Amino acid sequence: MKDLKEIRCTKCNKLLGRIKGIGEIKCPRCQTINKIKN
Known InterPro entries for this protein (predicted)? Predict the structure, then answer.
């Protein structure tokens, strides 16, 4: 659990989750696509 990074939306700052790795998450609040590169 120490290596998980907290991911927040770049537009509305909503917590989207804690992940390890790369991916894309669509914010359920503002519909912004957030790209993650851990």
Answer: Translation_reg_Com
Which tens digits make up the pLDDT trace of 1-33?
678 999 999 999 999 999 999 999 999 999 999
User: Residue 30's beta-bridge partner residues?
Assistant: none
- Segments of the chain assigned E as strands: 5-8, 15-19, 22-26, 33-37
CA 2 to chain centre: 17
This prediction's pTM: 0.79
The CA distance from 32 to 29, in Å, is 8
User: What backbone phi and psi angles, to 5 degrees, belong to 29?
Assistant: -85, -50
